[in-house]
Each structure stands twice: as C-alpha cells, then as structure tokens.
Write a structure and sequence with these properties.
Blueprint lengths: L3 E10 L2 E11 L4 E5 L6 H9 L6 E6 L2 E2 L10 E4 L11 H11 L4 H15 L14 H14 L4 E5 L7 H18 L2 E5 L3 H7 L2 E6 L2 E6 L1 H6 L4 H6 L6 E11 L2 E6 L6 E4 L12 E6 L12 E12 L3 E7 L15 E6 L9 E6 L5 E3 L5 E3 L1
Parallel strand pairs: 3-8, 3-9, 6-7, 7-8
Antiparallel strand pairs: 1-2, 1-4, 4-5, 9-10, 11-12, 11-14, 12-13, 14-19, 15-16, 15-18, 16-17, 19-20
Bound molecules: adenosine-5'-triphosphate.
The site of adenosine-5'-triphosphate has 12 residues, from strand 2 and helix 1.
C-alpha cells in the first residue's frame, strides 16, 4: 500500500495553464476522489499521474520514488477509463492478461492473476467472450480487472461509471467500495457524480480552475466548507445563497441585513475568521435540509410553491419567497430549495411558510471565504 505524492504540479499547454501548482498526498490505502467543474483540470492531473501527459514543473512520487519522468508502464499505476478501452479482438481473459504478457510473465502466472481478478469481479463465466458480447457493466468490470491483474501501486479511475445507467452505477459504486476494502489499494478517482464522491471517498479533493479549493473527508467538506465555492459545489440541491450586508460587528458577533428579510440576523463567526467590517457585502448560505418546523426563534417567511420534486420519503420544493432569493443557483430563478416531508401534499401555487433557524446559516465574506459554518 504505497502513498502517492503530488508536489506543486504545473501543467501548461502553450500559453494556457490547466494545472497551476497543485499539491496533495494520497496516504497508503486511501480512496481519493477528485471533483470540480468541467475543465478544472481533474483529468489532466490524473493523466499526468499515469504518465499520459508530461508535466511542466513539479514532481510526482510513489512511496517517495520520483516517477515524474518515468514511462507510463514503469510507474506502477493502472488506469481505468470511462470508455473501457478494451481490445475488441481479444477475449476477456486476453484483455485482462495483456499487460502481464507484454511484461513477459510466465503463462501460469498470467492465468492465475486473471482467474483471481475474475473471481473478485465475478466475471468468471465471461472469460472466453469478446468485448462486444458483454454489457456495459461487464465491460467496465473487465477494464477494472485489467488494472487488478497488473497489481499496481496506485489505481487511477477516470469517470469509470459515467457510461452506465443509474441502477448499474449504484451497484458498481458498492462493488468498487468492496474492491477497495479487499485490495486495500491506494486509489485516485475522478468523477462528476456527487454521490460517488460522497459515498466512496476517504477524502475528496475539490478542484477549480487548475487549483485545489479544499481537501477533506466528505462530511468535513460538506459541513465545514472553506469557502462559498466548496459550499456550493458539494450538496444537491445546491446550497441557497442570499445576499446580505454587515450592519454591526462587535467581538465575534456580526449583525446582518439580508435582502428580502425585514429582521436583522445576529451570527457568531468562527474563532479563526477575520471579522468583517460594517458595510461589507456578505453571503448567507442555507442548505435545503435545514429549513425548520416553525419552532420559537425561527424566522417565518411567507412563500409560494413554485416547483415540486418528489424524492419518495421527502419532497424537494422550490419556493418563491419574494425578495428573499437565492443567487448563483442551478435554475437561476432565485427560488429557494427546501426539503419537506412528503406527508404534506404540496402543489405549485400553494402557499407555505418557510421557517429559517438562524443557527443553520453559513456565512461567507465578500471574497467568498467562510466566516461561519
Ligand atoms: P471534465 O470534467 O470536463 O472532463 P476536467 O476537469 O477533467 O474536465 P481537463 O480535461 O483536465 O478538465 O482539462 C483542463 C483544461 O485543460 C481545459 O480547459 C481543457 O480545455 C484544457 N486542455 C486539456 N487538454 C488539452 C490539450 N491537449 N491542449 C490544450 N488544452 C487542453
């Protein structure tokens, strides 16, 4: 179980810098998931680790061994691609044993490695088939099997489940988790899928525009985002963001007037946060699941149901609360996202009262840095 160290890695294409000096260490046996908006450099970084890209500066080390300039085949990494990248004319067994064959390993050793990987992935009955005789999920298992037989120091996954349907994706998520537990391998996994990141990662690396915004456990990032970008990126639906202004500040307590609310809100900011100045523009953050039940001390906001999404036990409401609007939302309409129990039937146009517990507010300063979580 080796560690993987990314040390101040920069990758430029001509005048464009896709990765602007990124550092993190995957500890032995960690499952690191890299997330971030399209074009932020996730795949470039993964391909750089694999040796499919030459980095401009910085270093990549596995267990302290510098592999920055090593050939892809000499790095001790194996990569699983979104499109499987299987050899169409070879059988499943040949696909899985190919790298070992190229390395000149004896036939008996190759057969044993293939049999072992096939057992782990439960594809023993498909070993004699060619890729075109397999389903998408089976093909992806073969692609993973091909990585397993190489017994790499580090597994790299580039959105391996995104071509699968929802049911198969959730099954494969569980299987990849099992595989990680069984192999105890160090893994780096790139995805667009929040659920994959939240459920599989030991730590998540959130990237944005070629830089790392934050690294931490899924719950740490969800509950204690370093800034508004991370707060907005993790969580579905997206956190509600409300504009506000500091009207008073004393000690670690600040008073905020939020756009669309008539009452000022008093909040404590974190001990290590810089106290904002009176007059500063700030952002209040509120997750959809934190709307209250109308208990004393909560702020009652009259609203109207705009959109209803039934999620089974719960319902997701997009509520029109007049001037109390979220900006920077997915839908751009300013409606607040709020979870409700499905026991109360709601339809578009129905009036409802949103209860906001001030304790649930996140607060971000004018630069988007977290003042309170
Ligand atoms: P996605 O989630 O859409 O796959 P990503 O985060 O994986 O995005 P990358 O594929 O790493 O993003 O790309 C990062 C940036 O580098 C993008 O702006 C992309 O256009 C640019 N880029 C990638 N490959 C090249 C290349 N060969 N030449 C020039 N620019 C490139």
């Amino acid at each position: 179980m080796p560690s993987l160290q990314i040390d101040t890695v920069v990758k430029s294409y001509d005048s464009f810098t896709a990765i602007k000096g990124v550092s993190f260490t995957a500890e032995p046996g960690e499952f690191i998931v890299m997330v971030g908006p399209s074009g932020c450099g996730k795949s470039t970084l993964l391909r750089s680790i694999a040796g499919l890209e030459t980095i401009t500066s910085g270093a990549i080390r596995i267990d302290g061994r510098d592999i920055t300039h090593a050939e892809p085949s000499d790095r001790g990494v194996a990569m699983v691609f979104q499109n499987y990248a299987l050899y169409p004319h070879m059988t499943v067994a040949e696909n899985m044993g190919f790298a070992l064959k190229m390395a000149g390993r004896p036939k008996t050793e190759i057969a044993a490695a293939v049999a072992k990987a096939a057992k782990i992935l439960r594809i023993e009955e498909h070993l004699h088939k060619t890729p075109k005789q397999l389903s998408g999920g089976q093909k992806q298992r073969v692609a993973i099997g091909r990585a397993i037989t190489r017994a790499p120091d580090v597994f790299l996954f580039d959105e391996p489940l995104s071509n699968l349907d929802a049911a198969l994706r959730s099954q494969m998520r569980v299987e990849l988790g099992r595989l990680h537990a069984e192999l105890k391998a160090t893994m780096v996994y790139v995805t667009h899928d929040q659920t994959e990141a939240m459920t599989m990662a030991t730590r998540i690396v959130v990237m944005n525009a070629g830089l790392i915004e934050q690294v931490g456990s899924p719950l740490d990032l969800y509950n204690r985002p370093r800034n508004r970008f991370v707060a907005g990126f993790l969580g579905s639906p997206r956190m509600n963001f409300i504009k506000g202004r500091i009207v008073a500040a004393g000690g670690r307590t600040v008073t905020i007037m939020a756009e669309g609310l008539t009452m000022p809100i008093q909040l404590q900011i974190e001990p290590d946060a810089d106290v904002p100045a009176v007059g500063d523009v700030v952002t209040l953050g509120l997750r959809a699941e934190t709307f209250g039940t109308g208990a004393p001390g909560q702020i009652a906001v009259p609203a109207r149901v705009a959109v209803v999404e039934s999620l089974g036990r719960e319902t997701l409401i997009y509520a029109d609360a007049g001037n109390l609007r979220t900006f920077d939302s997915e839908s751009q309409d300013g409606y607040l996202a709020a979870h409700r129990s499905s026991q109360v039937m709601l339809r578009p146009g129905d009036p409802l009262t949103l209860s906001i517990d001030p304790a649930a507010f996140y607060l971000f300063d004018r630069n988007g840095e977290t003042l309170r979580f």
